[in-house]
């Protein structure tokens, strides 16, 4: 049975419909964000980097990041989008941010060592944030759950 190692919830400022996660050590990312980013499919996987397209141009989304010892069950609930991918993280930490807002000040900690991680991404609130963000500043309407576990 999968065991939860850590869980953290953080807000992230999204702008220009974009959100990314990449290795905290950007020297390990051949094409650092925002190079080659453009709004498009929900997820684009690159070497050392994950690019996501949000439901709204500018807002603050809620991110829940879970680190597991092995593949967990999918998070409960109904999700607008889900994706399964992997990322190699040499530093053991990830930078998270929006297109022009830059990274959050603190990294997301995965491990004390380099590794390749499987990641399941689930998102909800996309239609709601698209509608609400047209009229006002919104926070926490679009929610993401990132579940990481070591690649077998």
Major sheet attributes: 6 strands, antiparallel
Please tell me the overall pLDDT: 94
* CATH architecture field: Sandwich
What value does the Rg take, in angstroms? 15 Å
Question: So what's the overall shape?
Answer: globular
Structural class of the helices, strands and pairings? Answer: mainly beta
- Count of helical segments? 1
CATH fold-level name: Substrate Binding Domain Of DNAk, Chain A, domain 1
Number of strands: 11
Alpha carbon gap, first and last residue? 15 Å
Approximately how much helix is present in the residues?
A: under 10%
Write up this protein.
- The chain has 152 residues and is mainly β.
- The chain has one domain (4-150): Competence, DNA-entry nuclease inhibitor, ComJ (Substrate Binding Domain Of DNAk, Chain A, domain 1, Sandwich).
- Helices cover 5% and strands 51% of the residues.
- It contains one helix and eleven strands.
- It has one helix at residues 126-132, and strands spanning 4-14, 18-23, 43-46, 49-53, 59-68, 81-89, 93-98, 102-103, 108-109, 115-124, 139-150.
- The strands form two sheets. Strands 2, 3, 4, 7, 8 and 9 form a six-stranded antiparallel sheet that branches.
- A hairpin with a 3-residue loop joins strand 7 (93-98) and strand 8 (102-103).
- The mean pLDDT is 94.
Summarize the structure.
The chain is mostly beta strands and 152 residues long. It is built from 1 helix and 11 strands; from the N terminus they run E-E-E-E-E-E-E-E-E-E-H-E.
């Amino acid at each position: 049975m999968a065991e939860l190692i850590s869980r953290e919830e953080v807000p992230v400022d999204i702008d220009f419909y974009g959100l990314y996660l990449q290795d905290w050590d950007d020297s390990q990312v051949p094409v650092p964000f925002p190079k080659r980013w453009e709004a498009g499919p929900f997820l684009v996987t690159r070497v050392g980097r994950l690019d996501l397209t949000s439901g709204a141009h500018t807002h603050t989304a809620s991110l829940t990041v879970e680190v597991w010892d092995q593949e967990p069950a999918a998070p409960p609930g109904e999700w607008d989008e889900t994706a399964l991918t992997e990322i190699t993280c040499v530093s053991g930490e990830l930078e998270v941010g929006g297109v022009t807002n830059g990274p959050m000040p603190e990294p997301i900690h995965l491990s004390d060592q380099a590794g390749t991680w499987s990641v399941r991404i689930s998102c909800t609130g996309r239609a709601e944030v698209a509608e609400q963000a047209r009229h006002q500043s919104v926070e926490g309407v679009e929610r993401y759950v990132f579940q990481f576990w070591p690649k077998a």
